[in-house]
Structures are given as structure tokens and as C-alpha cells.
């Protein structure tokens, strides 16, 4: 009984961190978030099907109080409309596929368009993009690939906060000591070769109207956007990897397991889950919900030398 009370107090505290009091009566405290699968990494010896989801993204969301539905990349438009109306948000994960021609890109666009339409009709539906997901969102918004090569393959960096970013939806409830750590410590893991430069963002009217820059970074030559949120829509994107610090363990530069890095992971996840709680989408019944959840699948351990410790594979 004591543990239940402690958990309830913690849950109430976290909800209070991110959600205005006037909105709390309408919250969905059983949020289900979709994570989009993608084509396998070429040469993956552990593959058990043509697509995968890294387990770290599932754990990341579960750590903040959400359940996860895997979204396969071989479904029909009708399949995705049905899933969209049942889940409370979408996470577009990192990876290594073509963000214009892949099945990952095709399905991302379907959900992106559905989310735009839903939010325009006051049907709240948030999207989160990490690394490749960040990049995918820039293509979906601009209808162009505006990415540029950067030397950011395996490095941890501090964030350079834009003016007023601490009052953004994403960051405004972060503890001050965590914001200071993010600004001063090398705790954001970067594992990408392509970035959206500030210059390319500035030159593209669609991106400038749609997204607000929250943080930037530099590889020493090019300044690129590392965190952004949409002005009108509950869409958020990070070029760095908050899910890696608690859940990935390959011994490489850029992999940070400090307390402040893990705290950053938790607060980003908690923020996005709190956004998903504002969605009122539901499965038709409990049986349909149970059959859709990630618990029906078993992750495959890929070894300590793998960039992803565990993957879920799908037909």
C-alpha cells in the first residue's frame, strides 16, 4: 500500500510538472504511443524479419508512463488510419533509411498528414522525432531534403539554447540545474552524419514558419539545429539521442551515462508522455488494445558491441 501511495504522489508530481491545472481533468492516464518500425540495417545477422524497432525507444517511453504499439511499415492506408485513431502519439526513431523513398518515410507522411488534420480540428495528437525522426520531420514539412553533412557521428555535446528557449513548451518545466547541465556538459549523444544547418533552415520559408529553434550545436564548421518544436502543432524533434544514456551500452565516444544525462532522458520522455495524455484516442475494446501492444513481441539481444542492445523484429 505504501508503494502505491508513493507511486501516486510521483505520478501527480510529474503531471503537475508539464500540464496546466485547468487541463488535468481531461487527461488520459493510460496513454499508448506508436513507435514506427523501419527497414533493417543491411547485414544485421540477428534479423528476424525485414523491419525492426530498437528496444531503447520502447523502454524510453515506458520509463515515463506510456505503453507502446509497434507500427509496421507494410500496412495499408486504412490500417494506419485505424491505428492513428487508437494511439495517443507517435515517435519517429533514429536509424539509417532513406527519408524520402523508404517505407519508413511513406508511413511517416501518412501519420504526419493525419496529425496535421486532427490537430487543426482540435483533436490533440503529438509527434516526437529523434535523430532520423528529426530529419524526417524536416522533409515532411519542407518537401525537400535540406540536410547537410556534419562531423557528428559519435560525440557528446552541450546544447546552445536559443533566446527564450527555457520558456518553450518542451523546456519550461525542466529543473534549472538540468538546463544548466544541458548547456554546460557534454551529455547529449550525437550519432548522425546529416544535420539541418541553421543556414538551410533560415533559407526555407516553410521550415521557418513551422518550427521554432530551441537549441543549436556546431561540429566546428557548421551550426546545426539540435532541438526544435512546432509553433502551432505538438510536434517536437531532437537531433540527439535522449534514449541512449539509460538503455544503450556500446562502448563508444558519445555514449554518456552520467546522472545528468539520464535525468535529461527522463525529462524529455516525461514531457512527451504528458503531451500524449492530452490525446483522447482510444482502441475500440480491450482485446484490440492488448493485441496491438509491444508486449506481444520479444526483443532480441544483439550483444554489447551493437549500436542497439536489443531490437524487436517484424514481418
TrEMBL record:
Reaction(s) this enzyme catalyzes, per UniProt: (6S)-5,6,7,8-tetrahydrofolyl-(gamma-L-Glu)(n) + (n-1) H2O = (6S)-5,6,7,8-tetrahydrofolate + (n-1) L-glutamate
PROSITE patterns for this protein: GATASE_TYPE_1 (PS51273), PEPTIDASE_C26_GGH (PS51275)
Keyword terms: Hydrolase, Secreted, Signal
UniProt subcellular location: Secreted, Extracellular space
GO biological process annotation, one example: tetrahydrofolylpolyglutamate metabolic process
Active site residues according to the UniProt entry: 131, 241
Main localization category: secreted
Molecular-function GO term, any one: gamma-glutamyl-peptidase activity
EC numbers, comma separated: 3.4.19.9
One Pfam short name: Peptidase_C26
InterPro entries for this protein: Class_I_gatase-like, Pept_C26_g-glut_hydrolase, Peptidase_C26
A cellular component annotation (GO) from this entry: vacuole
Enzyme class, first EC level, given as a word: hydrolase
Signal peptide (UniProt feature, chain positions): 1-23
Family membership noted in the UniProt record: Belongs to the peptidase C26 family.
Protein's UniProt name: folate gamma-glutamyl hydrolase
Organism: Chanos chanos (Milkfish)
Classification lineage: Eukaryota, Metazoa, Chordata, Craniata, Vertebrata
Amino acid at each position: 500500500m505504501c508503494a502505491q501511495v508513493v507511486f501516486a504522489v510521483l505520478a501527480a508530481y510529474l503531471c503537475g510538472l508539464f500540464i496546466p491545472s485547468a487541463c488535468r481533468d481531461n487527461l488520459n492516464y493510460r496513454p499508448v504511443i506508436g513507435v514506427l518500425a523501419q527497414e533493417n540495417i543491411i547485414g544485421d545477422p540477428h534479423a528476424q524479419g525485414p523491419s525492426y524497432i530498437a528496444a531503447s525507444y520502447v523502454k524510453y517511453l515506458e520509463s515515463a508512463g506510456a505503453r507502446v504499439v509497434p507500427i509496421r511499415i507494410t500496412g495499408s492506408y486504412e490500417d494506419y488510419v485505424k491505428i492513428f485513431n487508437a494511439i495517443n502519439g507517435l515517435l519517429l526513431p533514429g536509424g539509417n533509411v532513406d527519408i524520402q523513398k523508404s517505407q519508413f518515410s511513406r508511413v511517416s507522411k501518412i501519420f504526419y498528414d493525419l496529425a496535421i488534420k486532427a490537430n487543426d480540428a482540435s483533436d490533440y495528437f503529438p509527434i516526437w522525432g529523434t535523430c532520423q525522426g528529426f530529419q524526417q520531420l524536416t522533409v515532411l514539412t519542407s518537401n525537400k531534403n535540406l540536410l547537410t553533412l556534419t562531423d557528428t557521428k559519435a560525440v557528446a555535446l552541450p546544447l546552445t539554447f536559443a533566446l527564450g528557449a527555457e520558456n518553450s513548451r518542451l523546456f519550461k518545466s525542466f529543473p534549472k540545474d538540468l538546463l544548466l547541465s544541458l548547456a554546460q556538459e557534454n551529455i547529449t549523444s550525437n550519432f548522425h552524419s546529416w544535420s539541418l544547418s541553421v543556414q538551410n533552415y533560415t533559407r526555407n520559408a516553410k521550415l521557418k514558419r513551422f518550427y521554432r529553434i530551441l537549441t543549436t550545436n556546431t561540429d566546428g564548421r557548421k551550426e546545426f539545429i539540435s532541438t526544435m518544436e512546432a509553433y502551432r502543432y505538438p510536434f517536437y524533434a531532437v537531433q540527439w539521442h535522449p534514449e541512449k544514456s539509460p538503455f544503450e551500452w556500446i562502448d563508444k565516444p558519445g555514449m554518456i551515462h552520467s546522472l545528468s544525462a539520464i535525468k535529461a532522458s527522463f525529462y524529455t520522455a516525461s514531457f512527451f508522455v504528458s503531451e500524449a495524455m492530452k490525446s483522447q484516442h482510444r482502441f475500440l475494446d480491450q482485446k484490440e488494445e492488448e493485441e496491438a501492444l509491444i508486449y506481444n513481441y520479444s526483443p532480441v539481444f544483439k550483444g554489447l558491441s551493437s549500436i542497439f542492445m536489443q531490437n524487436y523484429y517484424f514481418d
